[in-house]
């Protein structure tokens, strides 16, 4: 799978370093209607900036290929598929900023495998996101941090944090997390992967009625 980055090099990952496994920030994450993001509830993951494509979805790179890739819908009005976000270390109803999470697509998987997202390295050494991950493992470890690209509009950056999950959790003092964004291939298809291009997102409940948080 030939994937090239637009404008920047993959060697320049933006990362954050924290001084402890879990950030001291206790801010909860909110959906697009101002309700707290809830564990186990499906949400569409949409770009903050309209005119930049639709929501995240799952798709095949080619026929019969598994696992499915995480991609972005090309059209603004396409929400993609819903995703469920679950805290990894703590059994909390609300998702909090800078806490490790798993992200799972809430759709039937034709590959009949796990729908939990994971980061993989392709033959071209480009780290992309696919389905087929496992809960509480380094390759499936993400977090959400607040993005202030547009003050007054609440949005978030998805980050990949392999050292916050799995057997090595808590063994180091510094944690490095990589931004997750959009990588386009030569055909213009938009894959989700590790990139230094910011990709602020919002979360929209997939239910017809707004989910009310506690």
TrEMBL record:
Residues 1-20 form the signal peptide. The keyword Magnesium does not apply. GO terms for molecular function: endopeptidase inhibitor activity. CDD domains: beta-trefoil_STI. Pfam families: Kunitz_legume (PF00197). SUPFAM superfamilies: STI-like. Keywords: Signal. Belongs to the protease inhibitor I3 (leguminous Kunitz-type inhibitor) family. This is Proteinase inhibitor I3.
